[in-house]
Design brief:
Number of strands: 7
Radius of gyration: 16 Å
Structural class: alpha/beta
Shape: globular
Largest sheet: 5 strands, parallel
Length: 217
């Protein structure tokens, strides 16, 4: 089976300091982003998917989940090579808009410290606010900690809770399109059974998987 990943972009887009929902400009890039990590076996399966195919992912890490410690040996080499990028998805996945500025900062700071300790990076400059909820206070707190880019999405696998394999394949067919940021979750097993379908769709559409660091300067 040939590698999924072709040549990466030769020039990078300017990195925005505002909310992003898609990849600006022309091209056939796809940023598949994976949140949470509630299920260690799903994180492990995503790591294997990356190793087997060359697929590139941005994981938004919820630091409280054991999966990020349990899969460190498999994941850290992918992070160090740049094939997988890690961003900040808070410590315990609260609605940040419901917190004080101090509480919001601690949510982001705990995961920042965790990423630095376990993976040697801190995920800056990208953070994903849980549920996509953010406001001026949240964005200021995040930016002050080194995360000026709230990263949302333009298409979702809708698998934060359990969905069927058929649903996931349909969502991929709908949303795996050029210049999209798509959100998935490392929470439930069904996604681990459809990687070959994802691979087929990406190949058929000649999409170029990228991390956010691949695409933005």
């Amino acid at each position: 089976c040939p590698p999924l990943q072709g040549a990466l972009p030769t020039t990078r887009a300017p990195r925005p300091d505002t909310t992003i929902t898609k990849l600006p400009g022309p091209g056939r890039a796809l940023a598949l982003t994976v949140d949470d990590g509630a299920n260690s076996s799903v994180v492990a399966a995503y790591c294997q998917f990356a190793k087997d195919t060359g697929a590139r992912f941005t994981f938004f890490v919820t630091g409280q989940y054991d999966s990020w410690r349990e899969n460190r040996a498999a994941l850290r080499p992918l992070v160090e090579s740049g094939q997988v990028q890690l961003g900040n998805h808070t410590w315990s996945h609260p609605d940040l808009t419901s917190l004080t500025a101090r509480e919001c900062a601690e949510e982001l700071r705990r995961t920042k410290r965790f990423l630095r300790s376990e993976y040697g990076i801190d995920g800056v400059p990208y953070y994903r606010p849980p549920y996509g909820f953010h406001n001026d206070q949240v964005d200021k707190v995040a930016a002050d900690l080194g995360y000026p880019v709230p990263t949302l999405w333009y298409g979702s696998l809708s698998d934060s809770s359990v969905v069927t394999e058929k649903f996931l394949i349909g969502a991929a067919r709908k949303y795996f399109q050029p210049q999209r940021i798509v959100i998935g979750h490392a929470n439930h097993d069904p996604v681990t059974h459809v990687y070959h379908h994802f691979t087929q769709i990406i190949r058929e559409r000649r999409l170029q998987m990228v991390t956010l660091n691949d695409y933005f300067a």
